[in-house]
Write a sequence for this structure.
DNA sequence: CGTATCGGATACATACTTGTATCGTGAACA
DNA sequence: TGTTCACGATACAAGTATGTATCCGATACG
């Protein structure tokens, strides 16, 4: 047995910066490839290639492809929450805040709607894999909670009453952005970005246009 | 050149009943397996096995897996349109008709929400494959047209004005059912079936509850 | 009743993918 | 400056997929 008071070896760093960087590059590449090819269509090989590594690096950082998806979905959900809270921090009118939140929920600007594609991909994968389902459901819940918080804040400060519970409103908003953006990927021009905020949002808020 | 007036050979049947039956069984099996495993995850082998055939039968009826998806998505869209028009034919009140149409759009009863899963799967595949995209976009358009027709009929006979164009309304409805049912697959109990018709629909119709 | 052909089975060639086991190199620490 | 170990590369072992080429039996027709 090892000497009790001698810390076996405080490793060079908790997790070295280098390791962190490779993980990040692999995750970036993975988000591209998953969006382009889907979970099964994406190969570990292509992900590593695009990240500039070989599969050796991959299996040194992730235990499997499924493991990678868990990490990736977590990171993506955190990014969404980040965008939501950032949009909420702007000192604009409550309506503007809600619009911005809608937009933030939809996708990262300039990313060619990759994020919503990934979300769909994660969801489908989660339907089929129990581990991924637990993880993804937790992430979705975090996103919903962030949204409920923001929406509650916005509507009380504007002193309006939603025609449904805030939770329902948030779920509807999420389903709607998800569904409409997916549609737009096969039929550009269908239900444009702005229409959701300008046409549907007021109706859902119960505000006469 | 063949003698003009002698029809070369009116084949046994345009397409023999037996062939038709096999194709149908394969399509049924395919809709199960695609829903369970996704496009890439589904193997031709498993589809055939479940249909009670070997791959020989498959490649004798379809030229490839992609070809199968095209046929399957067409069949599925036709089923949806069938359900929609059937729901519209009921001589109920316009509100009831719209509710029924919503429900019909969502899924085939008793099919464990397989249809909406397939729809998502088709959509994702269509995003990535040009051929599938053309076919699926056409099917989606047909569904929308059927919906616009029904909705227009229902609202004029009830003499109300939508707070948006009928086309927008229909797109919103489709995005919403699609998105919410997908959510429900990973988190049962989220935005229940009835809530859409009873809570959201009236709001979208611009009717005070 | 013989026969052509259709429909499906079998067998095969080929290509890919995942994951493991092993090895080498360079950075950080004593 | 020597040494160790972390990190990533290389090589390998299976397993699995698609699609093709060929074969065989049943069915419909003359």
């Amino acid at each position: 047995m090892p000497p009790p008071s001698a810390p076996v070896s405080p490793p060079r760093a908790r997790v070295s910066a280098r390791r962190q960087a490779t993980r990040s590059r692999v995750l970036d590449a993975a988000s591209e490839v998953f969006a382009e090819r889907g979970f099964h269509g994406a190969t570990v090989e292509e992900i590593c290639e695009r990240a500039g590594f070989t599969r050796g690096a991959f299996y040194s950082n992730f235990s499997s492809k499924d493991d990678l998806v868990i990490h990736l979905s977590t990171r993506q959900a955190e990014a969404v929450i980040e965008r939501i809270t950032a949009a909420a921090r702007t000192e604009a009118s409550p309506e503007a805040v809600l619009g911005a939140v809608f937009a933030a929920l939809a996708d990262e600007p300039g990313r060619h709607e990759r994020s919503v594609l990934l979300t769909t991909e994660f969801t489908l994968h989660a339907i089929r894999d129990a581990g991924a389902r637990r993880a993804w459901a937790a992430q979705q819940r975090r996103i919903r909670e962030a949204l409920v918080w923001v929406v509650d804040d916005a509507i009380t400060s504007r002193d309006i009453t939603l025609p449904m519970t805030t939770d329902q409103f948030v779920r509807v908003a999420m389903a709607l952005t998800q569904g409409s953006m997916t549609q737009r990927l096969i039929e550009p021009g269908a239900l444009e970005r702005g229409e959701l905020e300008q046409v549907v949002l007021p109706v859902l808020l119960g505000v006469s246009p």
Remarks:
- Chain A has two domains: 10-62, 64-205.
- Chain A touches chain B through 46 residues (CB under 8 Å).
